[in-house]
Amino acid sequence: MSLRLVRIDDRLIHGQVVAVWLRALGAKRIVIVDDATARDEFLREVLTLAAPQGVPVEVLDVAGGAARCIELAAAAEPVMVLVRTPRTVLALRRAGVPIEVVDLGGMGAGPGRRRLHRTISVSPDEVRELRELEQLGTRVEVQIVVDDRPIPFRTLEERHA
Asked: What is the pLDDT of residues 127-137, one digit of tens each?
């Protein structure tokens, strides 16, 4: 499978993703799946410019992203998929995208959210969505940087319940 990393990170492309994850995974393409970002021409341009030269960036809505991820999962090219929310990953999974593991990256704090781990805060709806992903057979893990040992979501959820 060429979907090397499916990561939830509300910042999408940023220094850590570009400098560390992309290189460590050997990913040759970044696919961003987010409805609002796909509609925002300026933000699409900014994200495209944030990627290293020579690394194509595709910004797609959920419907187009699901079809594209299914296609890319069957191809040889290593790909990194970035989304902002668990809801998007759940929609991709329900649409048939073969997602074995999802990595929780930056998910900001705010009203109605509780801290799960360092830079990761979740709402009650997101907890339900992450649990559903696990029920569908997708492992949910926290691995902030590539050198960290992955921490299962269930372990953190139980610790912070």
From this structure: 999 999 999 99
Q: Is the entire prediction scored with pTM above 0.70? A: yes
Question: Which stretches of the chain are assigned E, i.e. beta strand?
Answer: 3-8, 29-33, 57-60, 79-83, 101-104, 114-117, 120-122, 139-142, 151-152
**How many angstroms from the chain centroid is the CA of residue 99?**
10
Would you please indicate which residues are annotated as catalytic (active-site) residues?
A: 14
DSSP 100-139: SEEEE--B---TT-EEEETTEEE-HHHHHHHHHHHHTT-E
Could you give the domains of the chain?
3-159 (3.40.35.10)
The amino acid occupying position 53 is Q
What is the C-alpha radius of gyration for the chain, rounded to an integer number of angstroms? 15
pLDDT in tens, 75-111: 999 999 999 999 999 999 999 999 999 999 889 999 9
